[in-house]
């Protein structure tokens, strides 16, 4: 009976994880409207300058974006933020764009008037493009990196731990943490399991490692070569008295991409709490199953009873997806000048 339940629970967890990942996959409408928005922005910039280039970096470049992820662009060349912001607004792409010039990386932030998609535009920076290229290489090396990263990104986003400026973990750091986990996982290293067929189990293992076992205050993470941990030096253990992750940038060993994670303690607590909730739910269902306390309807409902303890689809994500689908299907872009020069069949 126990073996039967454990087998059923594992299968249920894997099915539920697969269903969540299927939901997170971008639809044709979302891909198309994102590419169309990039096209519109490029047209504005090309009309303003002759010596600039617009490049996409971040999660859209690496295909690690959630349905409500921001679109990140960088303008290489002789552009000015405030002037560019005014012209984007004049073109009808956005209204009231926010220009943040005193940030460590000056940026224009706005919301696309047509779809509601949020956009960040920075100037003259190669770091985002370089990190995107590095992430592409890691995805090619580890089959499970992309789906597990999507799950972890959603998990952290739901708890507001996914922004560097609030002491959380940015996308590059999350990818490196997931990559390290997969590199160090004994069954993956030995070739005993297929990561893509065991994503639910790997999610639990990830939560256990970083929520319970990993000694964040003493160890740093490196994904160089086959991956390793290293002892942290005294001066990188904390930021303003708060312990932080130390995650070595695989492109620059002197760059610590976890140095600003001053809310690392709360991230660890979130991982641990999720691991405990999920395992407790499994044991709870095991007890009910073994004591034959489930009626047929409850048995059929088991497969929806595990991940819902720690995951859900936020309202803003569902609404943005709904809006982008409506814009695409109803061809609300047809009256825009940029629509005639965009290749709608190339997506």
Report the count of strand segments. 11
| CATH topology call of the largest domain | Poly(a)-polymerase, middle domain
Q: What is the CATH class of the largest domain?
A: Mainly Alpha
Q: Let me know the average pLDDT.
A: 91
- The H-and-E topology, N to C, reads as HHEHEHEEEHHHHHEEEEEEHHH
Number of helices: 12
Largest sheet report: 5 strands, mixed
Low-confidence stretches: 1-6
How would you write the strand order of the largest sheet? 1-2-5-4-3
Counting helices, strands and paired strands, the structural category is alpha+beta
Give me the CATH architecture of the largest domain, please.
Orthogonal Bundle
Strand content: 5-15%
Name the helicity range: 40-55%
Radius of gyration: 22 Å
Q: How many structurally independent domains?
A: 2
Shape: globular
Distance between the first and last residues' Cα: 50 Å
Give an account of the 3D structure:
The protein has two domains: 2-25 and 133-268, Poly(a)-polymerase, middle domain (Orthogonal Bundle), CATH 1.10.1410; 28-129 and 337-341, Beta Polymerase, domain 2, CATH 3.30.460.10. The chain is built from twelve helices and eleven strands. It has helices at 2-24, 28-48, 58-62, 81-90, 127-141, 145-158, 171-184, 186-189, 199-213, 264-290, 296-301, 315-329, and strands at residues 53-57, 71-76, 98-100, 107-111, 118-123, 219-222, 228-231, 238-239, 242-243, 248-249, 252-256. The strands form four sheets. The protein has a five-stranded mixed β-sheet with strand order 1-2-5-4-3, sandwiched between helices. It is globular. The termini are far apart.
